[in-house]
Specification:
Layout: E1 2-5, E2 12-15, E3 19-21, E4 24-26, H1 32-37, E5 47-54, E6 58-64, E7 71-77, E8 79-86, E9 97-103, E10 109-112, E11 116-122, E12 126-133, E13 142-144, H2 165-168
Antiparallel strand pairs: 1-2, 2-10, 3-4, 5-12, 6-11, 6-13, 7-10, 7-12, 8-9, 8-11
Length: about 190
C-alpha cells in the first residue's frame, strides 16, 4: 500500500495493495494495524455511509463545525472526482484544495481529516461512494461552502452539475464568519 501525503497537511491519498487474477480481485479497504504502520492517523470510526449518485451529481462542499468528521472515502462502483478543502481558520493552507479521481478501477482512497470540507462529483453514469466517519452525522451542525467559489477555483471537470438546493445556495468561504468555521490547531 502507498500512503501519499498531499499538498494539504493531513490529507492522504491512499493506494491499497490489490491482489487480482482471472477470478477477480481482493483488497483490504481498512486494517487498523497495517494502515497505522503506513502512516495513517490513530482514529476510531463510528459510522459507515454509502451513497449512490448519477452522472453529473455534485455533493458538497460539506463540513460539521462542532462534530467534525474525519472521512476515509472510496468508490466501489463507477468514478468520481473527490475534493478536500482546508477551511480551518489560521491554517497555512486555508482555502487550498486537493482533488483526485477515485474509481472502482483504481481502488484509491482519500483520507479527509476532521475540520476539512469535502465534496465529490460523479464522472461515470452512476457511482457508489463509501465512507467511514470518525464522528456521527449531526444535521444541525452541518455547514457548506459553495461548490464553485471563485476564490477556491476548484476544477470539478464539469460545468453544469446537478446540485441539491442546499449546495446551490451555500455561501462562498469568504462570506462565512470565522466563528462558523473550524479552527486550526497546528
Amino acid at each position: 500500500m502507498k500512503m501519499n501525503q498531499t499538498n494539504l497537511d493531513g490529507v492522504l491519498h491512499i493506494e491499497p495493495k490489490v491482489f487480482g487474477d482471472a477470478r477477480g480481485f481482493f483488497l483490504e479497504t481498512y486494517n487498523k494495524e497495517r494502515y497505522a504502520k503506513a502512516g495513517f492517523p490513530d482514529v476510531t470510526f463510528v459510522q459507515d455511509n454509502h451513497s449512490r449518485s448519477s452522472k453529473g451529481v455534485l455533493r458538497g462542499l460539506h463540513f460539521q463545525l462542532n462534530h467534525p468528521q474525519g472521512k476515509l472515502v472510496q468508490v466501489v462502483s463507477g468514478s468520481v472526482f473527490d475534493v478536500a478543502v482546508d477551511i480551518r481558520v489560521g491554517s497555512p493552507s486555508f482555502g487550498q484544495w486537493y482533488g483526485c479521481e477515485l474509481s472502482a478501477e483504481n481502488h484509491h482512497q482519500l483520507w479527509i481529516p476532521p475540520k476539512f470540507a469535502h465534496g465529490f462529483c460523479v464522472l461515470s453514469e452512476t457511482a457508489d461512494f463509501m465512507y467511514k466517519c470518525t464522528d456521527y452525522y449531526h444535521l444541525e451542525d452541518e455547514g457548506s461552502v459553495l461548490w464553485n467559489d471563485a476564490a477556491l477555483a476548484i476544477d470539478w471537470h464539469l460545468e453544469h452539475p446537478l446540485l441539491s438546493d442546499k449546495d446551490a445556495k451555500a455561501p462562498c468561504l469568504a462570506d462565512i464568519a470565522h466563528d462558523k468555521l473550524p479552527k486550526y490547531e497546528g
